[in-house]
Amino acid sequence: MPSGVRDIQLLELKDTISQLNNTISTQNELIRSLQKMLQERDAKDSEKDQLIANLQAQLDYLKTRLFGSTSEIRHEQLPGQLDLFHLQTEDEPEPVPLEVEYIEVKAHKKARKSKAAYDEVFADLPTENVYVDTLTEEQKTCDVCGTMMVPIGHEPIRTELRYTEPKLERIDYYATTYECPQCKETEDPRFIKDEGTPALIPGSYASSGLAAHVMYYKYVMSMPLYRQEQQSAGGTALLLLGSHTTLLAAGNTQRPRKGLYTSGSSGIPIL
């Protein structure tokens, strides 16, 4: 083979080797660059993990302080600090246990208060005696001889309380006019009219009982007037409405202050 061709081949091989070396150098640089990037990313990941761990520890601590049980007892002993509650010297004697003295206390039994009877509880209530008569004529007939039986005595069988709701009654008062029979035929006949007892409130048809009822429930039981009207049925509400209006409008229109204008010791306000 001529030497010229061999030289050309050698030059080509040198160029190829040079290119390969350049490629290898470039790849090595790329590898080093990638390794550096991986190291930096690993460092950042480590910092993030540490930050997450710190934040998680702070969160756990705050949760414990906020929601966990708290105690002022310190269990760990700080270095260089004495314990104030467990100081014991070598010369301190052991405490001598005290003998417990037992004192016998006599048991006592509390007397049980007896229940009040009906006669004591209902002593102030008006009493009505009802003699029951529910047996038929056939039941009152003697089953031996057929004679009609006659009552021979009574005995109590039960007690009940009957509640009667408040009711309104209309009472019309009529004045009576009197004349003198002797002066009737004269020029000056004489007349006199019996007006009776004047009304509790002039111009009102509220009696003393109705006025006391309205004022007691309004000022003692704190029940407004409209509530009292709602509890009344039918025409009663109209009567109460008129009474309420008259009661509040009569005399002094100002509402009495609490604790003033009371009647005796009952504490019922007076308009």
From TrEMBL:
Residues 55-128 form the Transposase TnpC homeodomain domain. Keywords: Coiled coil. It comes from Roseburia faecis. The keyword DNA-binding does not apply. Residues 10-54 form a coiled coil. This is Transposase and inactivated derivatives. InterPro entries: Transposase_TnpC_homeodom, Znf_dom_IS66. The keyword Coiled coil applies. Residues 140-183 form the Transposase IS66 zinc-finger binding domain.
